[in-house]
Amino acid sequence: MAERPNLVLAMSPDILDLVLPAPLRTRLDELTHAHPVPLTDWNDPATQDLLAGAELLFTGWGCPPIDAALLARAPRLAAVIHAAGTVKGHVRPEVWQRGITVSSAADANAIPVIEYTLATVWLAARRSLGAAADYRTGRYPDFQQRRGADGAVVGVIGASRIGRGVIAGLLAAAADFRVLLADPYVSAAEAAELGAELVDFDDLCAGSDIVTVHAPDLPETHHLLDARRLRLLRDGAAVINTARGRLIDTEALTRECAAARIDAYLDVTEPEPLPAGHPLHTLPNVLLTPHIAGCQGTEVRRLGAYAVDEVHRWVHGEPLQGTVQADDLARIA
Ligand SMILES: NC(=O)c1ccc[n+]([C@@H]2O[C@H](COP(=O)([O-])OP(=O)(O)OC[C@H]3O[C@@H](n4cnc5c(N)ncnc54)[C@H](O)[C@@H]3O)[C@@H](O)[C@H]2O)c1
């Protein structure tokens, strides 16, 4: 094995033990000279020598921006390995411009979002929220009123890593789903290979029983589901959003849900958090969760494990698996 590189941790101390529980910490220490305390402030005079020698930055939630000022203090920095999803919050363009490798654990973070979305598709297909609300008022459904998932049309917005995982999960199920896909970066042939039918956004809205949103938050995806497209949804349809709140016009969605025309399952909103007293908190046909679809609690170690595997690959001269290229930033999360 090559000489162990100097590694600096940069993340909120609150999450360190979740990201790097003892066995992962031991692996990291075997692979690198890792400073034990995570940094949260590049300006701390006590850390300047550490930064001057840093070859790898192992980052997580709470990492300060990696900008030109930090790079000037870290002339040996060769790679930023992020133990979480998007790097857009903290990695600035100068990092790529200096030829520093950037890796993210977005693949690992995608897995629970895919599973959470799939679980929600089955809840939505059964119109579970309405059934639960009826049940609370003493109504018990007869057989004619019960809905199932078989044959439901699911519209997937975005063949992102999460969108593709959702499509694969839907097609692996016994429920005989038909899957529509809208994504300007995917051809009809690629969609067919995924097992989906490529349509435009309007046709997806008009033709789906359940619409699930998986595109990144980009200028062109802002309010992708606006008032007009939400009106295209079938009566009784459901919208699932585990992507970002800005992709849906929250107030237009609130109106549709308040009219009991559609149901919504929202892990993300705009704004987030949604203010107390907002109608989405109390509508019986809306399930609102506080951005919990990605890695949570005991699952956070998966992000650390992915990032430690990346460090292993780096140290052994192998290609990284989660590399983020500057050219892709305009179309990725
Ligand atoms: N709720 C959570 O906890 C949680 C966790 C992780 C990710 N997310 C969100 O989930 C979404 C998907 O994340 P990901 O890592 O799979 O994304 P990703 O980076 O893999 O997505 C990139 C792909 O999205 C598609 N895309 C780009 N622009 C599009 C457009 N205008 N319309 C439709 N599709 C478009 C393209 O196929 C592109 O290749 C993002 O919004 C992300 O922020 C949420």
Characterize the structure shown.
α2 packs parallel to α13 and α6 crosses α8. It is elongated, with a radius of gyration of 22 Å. It has 2 domains: 133 residues, NAD(P)-binding Rossmann-like Domain (Rossmann fold), CATH 3.40.50.720; 179 residues, Rossmann fold (3-Layer(aba) Sandwich), CATH 3.40.50. It is built from 13 helices and 12 strands. It has a 7-stranded parallel β-sheet with strand order 8-7-6-9-10-11-12, sandwiched between helices. Strands 2-1-3-4-5 form a 5-stranded parallel β-sheet. The longest helix has 20 residues. The protein is of the alpha/beta class and 333 residues long. Bound molecules: nicotinamide-adenine-dinucleotide. Nicotinamide-adenine-dinucleotide binds next to α6 and α8.
**Distance, first to last CA:** 34 Å
CATH superfamily of the largest domain: NAD(P)-binding Rossmann-like Domain
Could you please say which CATH topology of the largest domain applies here?
Rossmann fold
Ligands present:
nicotinamide-adenine-dinucleotide
Instruction: Pick out the low-confidence regions.
Output: none
